[in-house]
Amino acid sequence: METRTITRPAQEMQHRLQAKRWLMLIATLGATLMGAIDIFIVNVAVPTIERELHTGFAEIQLVIAGYTLAYAALLVTGGRLGDLYGRKRIFLLGVITFTLCSALCGFAPNAIFLISFRVIQGAAAALMTPQVISFIQVSFAPQERQTATSAYVVTLGLASILGLVLGGGLIVANILGMGWRSIFLINIPIGLLVLLATLLWVSESKAPGSQNLDYGGVTLLTLSLMLFTFALIMGGNTGWPLWSIICLVLSLPCIVAFWTYERWLAKRGKIALISPSLFRLRQFTAGNLTNLLDGTLWNGMLFLVSIYLQTTLHLSPLQSGLSMTVGSIAFIIASSANATLTRCLGRLRKRNLSIGAGMMAVSYLLFLLATKFLVAHGGVIPVLVAFFILCFSHGFFYTLVMPKTLEEVTTDHVGAASGIFTTTAAISSTFGVAIIGMIYAALTISYKNSLAAFELTMLLITLVSLGVIIFVQPLEASRSNISQ
Q: Quick one: DSSP state of residue 483?
């Protein structure tokens, strides 16, 4: 009788905790949705902002680049702040700042103010995003993380669709005569809902013990990433002037100095921003390399497809954007059904990452063949079918990578590890457009034919994608007991 009295309340408490963590996931994914939508929705509004603010192309570039720059440079720091001072606390700070800056962007009187608020908004997103991944790692059991990660990836896919639809819809609707300003103001009600849900459903967590932030590491890493990212974003769009090359060159000694400093701190027994022991974890290192290579190829491909649809198939920018939502839908379907698809593999599920990487390589080839041989007979339809298959394959593969990458990481360093993973993803996006775009431009000049340049660049992406199969091999090893 006594045993029942003790067990029943414990079971009820466990049930409430299980329900709460799924509510927590919903709350935090609201912030993920808000932050991701903001990237796509601004891209749609660029021509309108440029016209109504009477500004030049360089300033408009900075509206987009300022956000990306602050976001990429501060992701690791944002994740580590969550480890040290509380993930819920830092997440709330990010949500409040992001929402406030959205309002300020919406009422910005000129381009200078808009750029400034976008930079702060990007920094706020860097506080939010790593905490979402950290919440998944510390709140869900290993067997549940794939489902939670699928929800996270689905949210990113959904954001791409909503961003395109909302961006165009809000500008056309011109609610209360706000025009492009409404694309920022829409974040206010979303941010307030996320804030309320976080206060109600999200529990606080942080690394044990009293620790201080590694300010030297923050300074060196932020400087390194700012020099590197700014040069890639702005240099690629301005023909690689001398200043962009100088920034790229200077970023290298800065990152060497950062890593040397981090190792020095670790040897003295102090807490580094990024523990060098993280990169002694085979799965973590392999996962980030996979993320970098796959993200570079993927974002480069998306860049090429957008150009192909408009220059070769002569679709308008709006038609091109709507056509590419087919890929977002495929991405969402694959991410949602990831666990089911993995179970269908049966005994082969232990090799699901290799299978996913192989599917990606084959899908790149199918897409290339569709654009080369089928478009003359079927028009845009076979291209979109091949694009759907390609995005479906990527949705299946990408949903597997993140939980495997972080599988060995302990809760003490999960924030920093999440920041590194998301930084790698952000850099790969910039890499893809800069590197693949440069190759495509060089081939276009060489062959004086944009279609030939597209086909050769896609062939290169297809061949290089085979390297992803090699990179994922350490990720398919069983979970190790390496400690930090």
A: -
Three-state SS sequence of 128-163 = HHHHHHHHHHHHCCHHHHHHHHHHHHHHHHHHHHHH
The SS3 assignment for 442 reads helix
Q: Is 104 exposed, middle or buried (0-12, 13-18, 19+ CB in 10 A)?
A: middle
**Neighbour count for residue 189 (Cβ, 10 Å):** 10
> First CA to last CA across the chain, in angstroms?
44
Q: Do residues 92 and 195 touch, judged by C-beta distance below 8 A?
A: yes
Residue of 390, 243, 190, 192 whose CA lies nearest to 304: 390
Q: Which two tokens stand for residue 215?
A: 């300010």
| Contact yes or no for 122/70 (Cβ under 8 A) | yes
Whole-number pLDDT of residue 481: 37
- Shortest CA distance to 31 belongs to which of 79, 93, 84, 83? 93
Per-residue pLDDT, 209: 67
Could you give the angle at which helices 142-173 and 380-405 cross, rounded to 10 degrees?
Answer: 140
Residues of the chain scoring pLDDT < 70:
1-19, 57, 209-210, 237, 317-318, 347, 477-484
pLDDT one-digit tens code per residue, 210-259: 578 899 999 999 999 999 988 888 887 677 889 989 999 999 999 999 99
Q: Report CA-CA distances (Å) from 363 to 9, 104, 392, 461, 466.
A: 52, 43, 9, 11, 11
Rounded to whole angstroms, how far apart are CA atoms 22 and 308?
41
Interatomic CA distance for residues 437 and 105, integer angstroms: 30
Dist CA 331 CA 319 (whole Å): 19
CA angle 271, 276, 280 (to 5 degrees): 140
Q: What are phi and psi of 234, to 5 degrees?
A: -80, -35
pLDDT value of position 269: 83
Q: Are 132 and 152 in contact (CB under 8 A)?
A: yes
* Plot region of 314 (φ>0 → left; ψ -120 to 50 → alpha; else → beta): left
In degrees, to the nearest 5, what angle opens at C-alpha 238 toward C-alphas 236 and 240? 60
Whole-angstrom Cα distance, residue 403 to residue 69?
26
Q: How many residues does the chain have?
A: 484
Interval 430-455: pLDDT, tens: 888 888 888 998 899 888 888 999 99
Nearest to 32 by CA among 148, 201, 155, 190: 155
Question: Rounded distance, CA 376 to CA 298, Å?
Answer: 25
Alpha-carbon distance of 483 to 76, in angstroms, equals: 20
**HSE-up of residue 304 (Cα within 13 Å, Cβ side):** 33
Residue owning tokens 């009295």:
5
Distance CA 221, CA 251 (A): 9
Q: In this structure, are residues 438 and 236 in contact, taking their beta carbons and an 8 Å threshold?
A: yes
